[in-house]
Every structure is written in structure tokens, then in C-alpha cells.
Amino acid sequence: SDYEQKYRAVMLTFKKRYSDNWMLNASLTYSKSWGLNTMGKTTSARQENVIYKGGDFGEDLNDYTNARGRMPADRPWILKVQAGYTFPWDILASFSWIYQTGRPYLSFTGFRLNQGPTKVITEPRGENRFPAWNMLDFRLQKTFNISDTVKFHAIFDLWNVLNSGTATSYSTHDMWKSRYLEPSGVFYPRRLQIGLKLQF
Predict the structure, then answer these.
(1) How far is Cα of residue 52 from the mean position of the Cα atoms in its chain?
(2) Regarding predicted confidence, which is higher, 65 or 31?
(3) Which DSSP helix (H) or strand (E) runs through 80?
(4) Which of 56, 191, 80, 71 is nearest to 129 (CA)?
(5) Above 90 in pLDDT, residue 82?
(6) Which residue range is the domain that position 48 belongs to?
(7) Closest CA to 73 of 47, 49, 106
(8) DSSP of 29-43
(9) Could you report the per-residue pLDDT of 18-52, keeping only the tens digit for each?
(10) Based on the number of CB atoms within 10 Å of its own CB, is 80 exposed (0-12), middle (13-18) or buried (19 or more)?
(11) Distance (Å, rounded) from C-alpha 196 to C-alpha 200?
(12) If I label 51, which of 86, 91, 108, 152 is the partner at 20 to 30 A Cα–Cα?
């Protein structure tokens, strides 16, 4: 049936439990999400089940132009790695890294027809994608043993170590607009957070 959505995925995982002062978790996912998106001309990652008809989708046959293909949240490759190591003097260093394919974005153009203005998607879904995510976070933690039951932790978090400025949204997807595919949202820049925690 043309009125369907499908998802297929394969995931490989590796887990090394904490021992000998270190741990490691990793996963690699390959997936495909495709079908008919009844929120046909949405520019967000939102997607609807075909049982629910998004708004007035389908009342104009132009709605079906390039409405089938990769779903808005489709990300074929996702790689995640988390690791930690405890150095002498109770100093813990850890990181979290995620790489994933950018989600698809669509482009459309507008027409004024007898039945009123309408938008038509100009390219197959999945033809173009946002830039891939490449996010690395790092933590350094020092533990002070105040007593047998009381511990004090000094925590230093560095987020977006690589200072990735990946675009996550565009101002407009209308090919005739001057701000077509101009980034309107990007990752937060590199930032440092210092925390103190008392455990008892």
C-alpha cells in the first residue's frame, strides 16, 4: 500500500562494565525510515502516522508530490561512544561522543492555482539533509573523601568540545525566498560548567 510508513534498523552494541578503573559503552545503528508523510509540507522533524491525516492533506492532489520518501526524523547512521577512566587520587575523566547523519530537509515552491495558493515539494524526500551531528562532551571530576560517609565532588563539564556550529534549522525552505536555507538554528557553542556536590 502507498499509505504506509516503515522502519528498519540494525544495531551493534559493545559494553565494558566498570572494572580496572575504566568502562566503555558504544553503539552503532543503521536504520531506514520511509513512507508517506501526511504532514506533507512540514519543515520540522515531526511526522504523523498515516491513520491520522495532517490538516487538509490530500484534498489537493499536489499534496502527494514528493510526499513519499524518507521520513523527517530519518537518520541512517548513529554512532555513540561513552567512556570513563579513574586516575589516581580519585580523578575521573569521561567523555560522550555522538555522530549521526543529519535529518532530511525539503524544499518547496509556491503556486497560485484556481483553488487557491499551494506549495509543492520540489525534490524527493531524503534527497537533501541537514549537516551531520558531531558532538563531543567531556567531564573531569575530583572526589574528596571527607569521612567514611561524606564525600565532596568538584565537577568540570565541557560541552561541545569541538565547538561544532552545525545548522539544525533553516529560515525558510521556499526556493524563491531570499533567506532560502539560511541557518536559523545552530548548536550551542562550546561552554564550561563548574559544579560542586556534597554527598552524605
Answers:
(1) 24
(2) 31
(3) strand 77-87
(4) 71
(5) yes
(6) 5-199
(7) 47
(8) EEEEEEEE-SSTT--
(9) 999 999 999 999 999 999 887 656 555 554 444 44
(10) middle
(11) 13
(12) 108
Rounded to an integer, the average pLDDT of 144-154 is 93
**Which residue(s) pair with 118 in the sheet?**
111
Please tell me the distance from the alpha carbon of residue 106 to that of residue 112, in angstroms, as a whole number.
Answer: 20
Write the DSSP symbol of residue 188.
Answer: -
How many domains does one find in the chain? 1
Distance CA 11, CA 94 (A): 23
Contacts of 152 (CB under 8 A, 6+ apart): 143, 144, 146, 196, 197, 198, 199
How far is Cα 38 from Cα 63, in angstroms, rounded to an integer?
Answer: 9
User: Cell triple for residue 121?
Assistant: 515539494
Look up the pTM and report it: 0.83
Distances 131 to 28, 33, 79, 82, 99 between C-alpha atoms, Å:
19, 18, 15, 22, 11
- Cβ contacts of 59 within 8 Å, gap of 6 or more: none
